[in-house]
Amino acid sequence: MTVKNFQDIFLTLQRFWADHGCVIQQPWDVEKGAGTYNAATFLRALGPEPWNVAYVEPCRRPTDGRYGENPNRLGAYYQFQVLLKPSPDNVLELYFESLRELGIDPMAHDLRLVEDDWEQPTLGAWGLGWEVWIDGMEATQFTYFQQVGGVELDPISAEITYGLERIATYLQNQDSIFDLKWSDDISYRQIRHQEEVEFSTFNFEEADTEKHFRWFEEYKDQAEELMKKELVFPAYDFIMKAGHAFNVLDARSAISVTERQKYIRVIRGLSCQVAEAYLKKRQTLDFPMLQENERERYAKYFATEESS
Amino acid sequence: MSKTMNLVFEVGCEDLPARFVNPALSSLAESIKTGLADQRIDVKKISTYATPRRLAIIADISESQSDLSEERTGPPAKFAMKDGEPQKAAIGFAKGQGVDPKDIYIVTTKKGDYVAVKVEEKGAPSADVLPAILESALGDLKFPKSMRWGSLRTSFGRPLRWMVAVLDGKTLPVHFANVDSGNQTFGHRFSAPNAITITDGDQYQNALAKADVVVDFDERKSTIRTLVDGIADSKNGKIVDDIDLLNEVSNLVEKPHAVLVEYAESYLELPDEVLISSMRKHQRYFAIQRSDGTLTNACAVVYNTPVKDPTVVAAGNLRVLKARLDDARFFWDQDLKHGGFGAFDERLKKVVWIRGLGSMFDRAQRIANLAESIANRLELKDASETAHKAGALCKSDLTSQMVVEFTDLQGVIGAAYATKFGESDAVALAIAEQYLPKGSNDSTPTSDAGSCVAIAEKMDAIFGCFAMGIEPKATADPYGLRRSTIGVIRILQDRGYQISIRELISMTRDNAKDITPTNDGYEDKIFQFFRARLKAQLGSNYDGDIIEAVLAVGMDDILSVSDRVDALSKFRSDPNFEPLTAGFKRVVNILRKQAKEYADEKPNVEVSQLVEENEKELYEASETAEKALAAALENRSWTGACEALSALRSPVDAFFDNIMVMVDDPDLKKNRLAILFKLEALFLQVADLSIVD
């Protein structure tokens, strides 16, 4: 299909990655700053089970809001996220093939892989990879996850995160994200502008800091209680909620520099705990998605605590 | 040497970070060379090539290992042999070396008789030995950061995707990660993706050149230089020199191309540093300046793919740059809306620097007062008001949106805003210079006010941290105190400021009334820290014992320390130096034993009591030397001072050859000691030569 408007991009990418063996999942319905936070990435990257997934993820970054006035900065935007576990040998070829599908001809543009070491302190996660540049524009974040939730990964996943708005401004030759065509008839502005203005006002001016501080504590407590009960996914939801409360407080400038580090440490601690809880739970479930012939290769995941 | 064979070894990876490429190539080459030498394979010629996607070694090597014929010694004969028969230890040794025990013989060494065997080994064909050498070289390769991929347990800089290993046209079986070697490489990822068969090393460079890959780093680098210079020339300008950027970009492409990108002139209202940072740091563009050093609204963009239409690449890059500059201008406008530093300072009051040391605003106030005091103390009258003003504003930009975005431009942004807010050029300059020197190659401030603020900014940090017990560790110096300390020393040296470190420390302490130290003895620790830095600074050019000898007599006159070390180092090659040092050591040894007796008061020489010719001579020589030394020091000529001391060599030698100091006559003894005390005092004005090895 010809990629003309914004929605064509994610429709095309979904089709492409589905054709290459990915499960097409959906956004995780809790506020988050990046597609990595979706449990389909954060939790599924852990442990031995193979997993190939793709989905669109709406991301909220309260501090990046600009009241809809800046053509390139938004408080909320969309990523298209792909996770391939283990990373296949031809992962870069597949990625460049997906760009061709979008109509980006590698002989018409300068496509480059520029070193970018990715780290997300609140997730206890890091990886190595690149920013992919299209004529100097960062279009994708490409990462081989090495650690998630403080846990060394084995096997390694490749995470491909497309910046949808950026790619769209490129394809549609627009200077402003708001001028993008979402569909043939509706613009990005018509759908998202009011939202940007209102959320900027909320995040920077109106968010009740007292409530958010309280919620942060309550979400944290709830997450901890749920983890004790080995309810991994619900616990993880509340960690994300705590993370978002923190992001709002940060945008409201309600958190000092030293406190900021403290909050990041708390969320990171929760992320590391939930990662461990997830692995433990999957172990009790006998890692159901792992092929029988792979069990020996990943024997370490089956070791009980006493024997390890 | 046996017949040579040609080896081509290429490792293909997903794009290595630019900074990994050259170090990885040289360490791979080194490790292969070592492996070949260990395996007795001669290397006639070796060339190395690398791009972000490949590391390649091409070598002419001997076709087989040289034969081994080596004597190896084992345990002492007295334990291992009995009646000429090998015992258990000798037999075990021989077997371990793969030799029949009946071939054991005895060698006589300085340490006695030992069991020995001759190990003979026919050299194997290189082709048999090479795979293991190449595999272990890959396994040993270290990167600044390594990663794993897929379900492999191997680590490497980036995933390894192919290997070429060809010896005289034949593929060598090499295995690493999940890759088996072959004889096929690949050209440019997009313009020449098909396999290219490699048969020998001579063909390698050309075959890849045809496939849009320039395998030689220096060639890419010089091409880039030519390309970007040409673009700058077309705008009647020249490239802003940036060797680090050139080196980085040379390893960001397999084959360089370049295109001109021009942005709207209106962005030139932003400070040059902001424009350069936007172009360089994020986008790796080469900025272009006019002959007068001001920036043009143009830059050169280097790219990797031989695209059909370079204007498409230029347009895309321009859009990105424009977005970045728009962002910068947004922050610039937002910050300038405040019309002054007041709003910044309100925020600064809430920024905690280090617990116990108040806010950043408090720190700026301390810097202002200290900078002014330093200016007054150094009698830099014109600078003191400027220094105070600049000090008070020096941290304000930390809360500006611009510095939050362009952190490395702190100070520079402050200076730009100071100008916009109506401060004088001198104040702006001093704000900009506060962080100088930023590293060992960076220059020190150019103005007195800037120097005073820079010293105050650093002293306040050093003092504050030590007072709170935050001392740099061998591996951790989170507040950059080493750099700050060296910075203070360098500013004093470069500006010729006469002030002692101890005085600076106490001025800083007196100025920081709002700080309650929690650490004991911090002042002396700071002093020792300075001493260590000074020693390290000089240590790269001078002998350690000379530096110690100079520092032993004090570093209050910090400006003279390096001059004294330099003069003394030159003096060291003078024939008088060794004997004079020996003489001085004798002086010191004798006096050390008398230290208690004369602790309170040193004796004076009674000229009338001088008896022997040699003691009269030494006394006269010391008088002459004293005057010469005073004259030299008046002119701060340490070479002159060394010459003055040098003249004492023969009289000192003659004195010790012919005169007994510790005689029974107490008056005579006292008078001779008095001469020695006088000599000691003269020497200690320059250095304590008794420390010299």
Question: What does this 3D model show about the protein?
Answer:
The complex is a heterodimer of chains A (308) and B (693). Chain A has 8 helices and 8 strands, in the order αβαββαβββββααααα. Chain A has 308 residues and is α+β, with helices and mostly antiparallel strands. In chain A, strands 1, 2, 3, 4, 5, 6, 7 and 8 form an 8-stranded mixed β-sheet that branches. In chain A, α2 links the parallel β1 and β2. Chain B folds into 5 domains: 148 residues, Alpha-Beta Plaits (2-Layer Sandwich), CATH 3.30.70; 53 residues, no CATH class; 120 residues, no CATH class; 198 residues, Hypothetical protein af1432, CATH 1.10.3210; 130 residues, Isoleucyl-tRNA Synthetase, Domain 1 (Orthogonal Bundle). In chain B, a hairpin with a 5-residue loop joins β17 and β18. In chain B, α6 packs across α7 and α22 crosses α26. At the A-B interface, β4, β5 and β6 of A face α9 of B.
Oligomer description: heterodimer
Return the domain count of chain B: 5
| Low-pLDDT runs of chain B | none
The rounded Rg of chain B comes to: 35 Å
- Which percent range fits the helix content of chain A? 40-55%
Keywords:
heterodimer; A: 308 residues; alpha+beta; eight-stranded mixed β-sheet; B: 693 residues; Alpha-Beta Plaits; 5 domains; five-stranded antiparallel β-sheet; four-stranded antiparallel β-sheet; 26 helices; flat
Task: Describe the protein's topology.
The complex is a heterodimer of chains A (308) and B (693).
Chain A: H1 6-19, E1 23-24, H2 39-42, E2 51-60, E3 76-85, H3 91-101, E4 111-120, E5 125-134, E6 137-148, E7 151-152, E8 158-163, H4 164-172, H5 188-206, H6 209-228, H7 232-251, H8 257-284
Parallel strand pairs in A: 1-2
Antiparallel strand pairs in A: 2-3, 3-8, 4-5, 5-6, 6-7, 6-8
Helix pairs in contact in A: 6-7, 6-8, 7-8
Chain B: E1 4-13, H1 18-38, E2 43-51, E3 54-62, E4 68-76, H2 77-80, E5 81-82, E6 85-86, H3 88-96, E7 105-109, E8 112-121, H4 126-140, E9 160-167, E10 170-171, E11 175-176, E12 179-180, E13 184-186, E14 195-197, H5 201-210, H6 217-234, E15 238-239, H7 243-250, E16 257-262, H8 272-282, E17 286-289, E18 295-303, H9 310-337, H10 342-348, H11 360-377, H12 381-393, H13 401-405, H14 412-420, H15 425-433, H16 448-467, H17 481-495, H18 501-511, H19 522-539, H20 544-552, H21 558-571, H22 577-594, H23 613-634, H24 638-646, H25 649-658, H26 666-684
